[in-house]
What we know:
Elements: E1 10-14, H1 16-28, E2 33-38, H2 50-53, H3 59-68, E3 72-79, H4 86-105, E4 113-119, H5 126-145, H6 149-154, E5 175-179, E6 183-187, E7 212-217, H7 219-237, E8 247-253, E9 265-269, H8 270-281, E10 285-290, H9 296-308, E11 313-317, H10 323-326, H11 333-353, E12 357-362, E13 375-376, E14 379-380, E15 387-391, E16 395-399, H12 405-410, E17 413-418, H13 421-434, H14 442-445, H15 450-463, E18 473-475
Amino acid sequence: MIQNGDDPDFQVMITAQEAWPVFERAVLAAKSHIWGSFRIFDLATQLRSPEAREIGETWFDLLEHVLCRGVRIHITVSDFDPIFATELHRLTWRTVRQAAALAEVSDCSIHNLRVTPHLHPAKAGRLPWLAFLPAVLRRRSKRLMALSDDQKLREAVRLDNGALPELHTTSHHQKIAVIDDEVVYVGGLDLNERRYDTPQHDRIAAHTWSDVQLLVRGPEAIEAAHHVKTFLTSIDACRKPAPMKYIRRTLSAPRPTQLPYVSPKTLLHEIEEDHVRAFKRAKDMVYIETQYFRARGLARRLAKEGRRRPDLHAILILPGLPDEVAYSSDIGVDARYGMSLQHDAIEMVRDSFGDRIIVATPVQPRFAARDTIQTLSGSPLIHVHNKILVQDDSFALVGSANLNGRSLYWDTEAAVRITRPERIQTLRERLMAHWWFEDLPPEARAHDTMFPWWSKKIAENSVMTPENRHGFLVQHDSAQLRDTWLNLPGVTENIV
């Protein structure tokens, strides 16, 4: 494993194999309280650290142990529209049932445990709701037919409550926890077994999940604690919270007049602002790892800087296909629209940068059994869920937000700014070493010299047999599944 730098207050973890043991140890060390907000938080997730395994097998056991020491735990779990995100909605209520079971069986004080599902209050206005209602009713009927009575009662709550369905368009997408207001754990990684992967990505291709998480001690944790404790109040009051120095957010609330709108009112879009600012300030290199690159407005900003400055380079690392497309037999309208938007965004920056941009995708270092949409350059895809921006050696941002309109304007997101040079160097070293099989030469690590080396090696990887490749990265194919793309004129790109 590549080690972090000399700063014990700044740890970079790549994949759950690295991140979860660190998170478990931080929770075990809690003295007073733990506040968190996650999209998915499954208490049946297996424990990985030796210290936690001495206590029990799952997070259910870990939380009980911490509660019995008198630590207060407050976790907000995102809830979802029960019709359009039924499986995620069921996962939320599974967590609620797990917490109720923990409170029932524990001999310790249950008053210190709060696991709260929260459905973002923003929903479609009456006019778009009426337009979508026939399709929504058909979808609800289909969902209900696929579920047992027990699943309807215990997991898919509100799916069949006898009322006309609403249309909730927004969710809390952040993955953040703060321990004792001293330590913040933040990034793109939720907690359930689907998110588990190793830095070698040697699992079944459909189970790979590249992600990055940070553990930071210091003033970042104080700001993060304030955010986690107050973001729901800001949303309910439709009030823009005070600015922060280290924590960057996306925050939205219901519009005062929602009638013609699908979208919520954006309160903060600080993560998008930091990207634009980094593009303008970059001298040599903009380095991005993201699950989605669909925000065409942001792509235009990057393309503008590429045209304006002929010495600027960019590296963009993306999954070969969205997870919901590569491993699903049913490609939904939203995924088809998203792929069309991403192709447009990629082409904008390619046209601007020319041969000064690399768009790459990681694949496993083995031949696939057969050539399918789950392969690229003859190898199985590795799913990229990272959300990283690095500008030269001057600025970095790590958090939960993808580069799509939903993450930049609608959903609740959180990220940490990194400006200290030694921490940026640690992050860069960890990110870059992750993608390559051997130690990188100095010219491949420095922001002002890395581009030629990366460009050459990725081009070679794309035509080499897996055993001869230099690392995981090959050239991205942005035209894959072109015949399934769907352009939706007049539909906001922020919806996907």
